[in-house]
Specification:
By secondary structure, the chain is mainly alpha-helical. The chain has one domain. The protein has helices at 10-21, 28-59, 66-77. Keywords: Toxin-antitoxin system.
Length: 79
């Protein structure tokens, strides 16, 4: 695992410390890695929605019902 040196603003550093102090995470590194994992997952979800929207805009109409679209979206978002 590579090591990095990063700086935080005071409010962000205090928040990180509070999370570690509450025993939610064992270290700032663990917390930062978890935040990055969450952001990466969220980006995948955003990209999926963006792709669906672009496809829909380019095709004009869909044969899927709103319930089918909603169910498919929920399945994708919940992994």
């Amino acid at each position: 695992m590579s090591r990095q040196s990063i700086s935080f603003t005071e409010p962000n550093d205090e928040w990180l410390k509070a999370q570690v102090n509450s025993k939610e995470y064992s270290s700032k590194s663990e917390l930062v890695n978890d935040l990055i994992r969450q952001a990466r997952k969220q980006q995948v979800e955003i990209d999926w929605v963006r792709t669906k929207l672009e496809k829909a805009e380019n095709s004009g109409f869909t044969s899927e019902s709103k319930n089918e679209i909603l169910a498919q979206s929920k399945t994708q978002l919940n992994g």
